[in-house]
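Risk register update: the risk of archive-format incompatibility is retired. Evidence:
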Amino acid sequence: MARSVSPFDGASLTERMDAHNPFVAGPFRYEIKRRGERIVHRESADDAKGNPLFAHEAAVDFAVGSGRRGRSYLINDDGFLFMSPITWYPQKDQGLWDLSPGYERGNAHFTRAIVPECLFCHANRAEPIEHTTHRYQQPIFQGYGIGCERCHGPGELHAARRRQREEVVGIDRSIVNPRHLEHALREAICQQCHLQGEERVLRRGRETFDFRPGLPLHEFVVDFVKPEKYQTDPKFVGTVEQMYASRCFQESAGEQKMGCISCHDPHAVPAPVQRRTYYRERCQACHAERGCSVPEPSRLKDNANNCVACHMPPTGSEVNHTSITDHRIVRRAAATEKGSSSWPIVDEMPLVPFHPPGSAPEAEGQRDLGVALMLLADRQPPDSARPLARRALPLLDAALRRDADDLPTQERRADALWTHGRFDDALAAYQAVLDKAPGREYTLNRATTLALRLKRLELAETYARRALEVNPRRAQSHYDLAAVYAQQGDWSQALSVCRGALEHNPASLSGRSLLIVCYLRLRDRPRADAEFETFLQLHPPDKRDAAKAWFAQQVK
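Archived output:
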């Protein structure tokens, strides 16, 4: 945990520069280079003859991860944090460079914003600038890796008493020792980062870094998970849910109630040569009297008497080149398959709170559920999103009757109205948020997109310009402004803004398609043709016929 994030430059590079460097992913080429004392990540693309189409690069400032399973990299652009598309994976042979987690499903290039929820689990502390999505007070990190206070609480009083050499009788109450907490509060310390359900919702009035050890986690966040019968997919961060589903957890009780520190020492990781013995001893702490039913000679022959090898086998993961250990502690490996993977189901509630329903007032719980449903809806196709919005809207309406100043709920209500097809109502709801917080970045971005869709061009231009004042690094806001000018017929201005937008994300297909249209409307066919060739090469081969058909339609 102390190595969860760190400053990164050429001097701190431990990864192999020659391992799968450069590498190709789709039409893009990725390269890691030294430039003076900095490490630069580069994305480029060439045409069919090998001529360069574009190159985009950035010096990386921070490394995320200890390097045991992988390291990803962050770019600090005046306090705006972005993720590099390149990650180091040490698991295969001697390691390799490849696309960052999730990028094989949707390549965000250099535009992926690092929001506070990401930093909460990967850094000791950061101070987000209010109403922005991914800008932070500088220096960004107050301590890099996860520090002592994230598990033991504020240490000022403890340190002061130690300096004064005060005698301690019994339990030292000046600092949190998780071993002295009741089970739920002890587990909350681990769960603040290791509980990763489908959606995590900040409680009303809370901020990302508010949680303090020794307090109930559910007073700060609510984690929503799939109903049990749908929990079948292997998740890189699903170990808490898996442990709770295990027979070991469910049948243990009292002082022997199983928890994370029953098996894991948060201060140390056993050396590879010690792991088999170390974890076997953890198992035998509960299973010494009734041991394994497999004869010891067979166990020694099959897996060197390794409990984990049989009962916690590695599973797949949604993260490339990685796997997780099955924390359901199955009796036999075949027992890992269960339930149905079809989710969400239209007529069923898709989310349930991980913590028991009585852990929060019912009204607040309904508010959190409404927010969670809309967070889930944002990741679904329209046919699945609309039923979620129908469930969420009355919950959000009721929450706002209790607290009209709850801005996250107001935003999600606006999202629900939009998903319902009530576009004018949604735009008015976004404006209501902006009346209270004029620089709220998420709302400005959503309002811009919706105003464009409704052809409220003057309003869309106002929103887009305000969004760019808050975040001039967001490529999509530049494209939105270019789209406003295009719809107004101001093709020269649209062209100028679109060119500027490509400096932030030259791989954007939507941006390049708008650039082509601008050239065509300005009767500059040679540049339109040249830009189309770039546009075509950036498509996967199976999408190029559709791109050609689109271009033929534009030139008619």
